[in-house]
Design brief:
This protein has about 130 residues and is mostly beta strands. The protein has no helices and eight strands. The chain has one domain: Sandwich (Jelly Rolls). Helix content is about 0%, strand content about 55%. A hairpin with a 2-residue loop joins β4 and β5.
Length: about 130
Amino acid sequence: MGPCETPAGTTAAASGAYTSTPADAIDGKLETLWNSGGYSGTLTLTFPKPVLFDRVRIAAMGVPACTEAYTLTVGGTAVPAESRSVSTSVAWLEAISVPRATYDTLVVDVAVAASWIAVAEVRIEDTAAKCAPP
């Protein structure tokens, strides 16, 4: 069985931050969030040990509301970008699939035209674990 959450002990680093820390994106609280401080940003999660998963869920918001492009990199391989609509309040986005394998890092790269990037939570999941929606 695989995970239904980002494992305890995971560390987070980011390309930048504004009135937040990258760890806010993995603290289990939708009330706190990582703000990139700009219209794009990269969040890198390093797991305490390799983890089996095949999809990633992100709780995010944008100011103003917009469509954001998310590119995930796992095992050194970038998964083609997927776009998700974000509102001005935090909401869980539709999961993004990655090849089912064991990974030790996850890089979330967010690119948009004109919206502040804010990620409240990143959750990894393995569909075999039949994770309940967040």
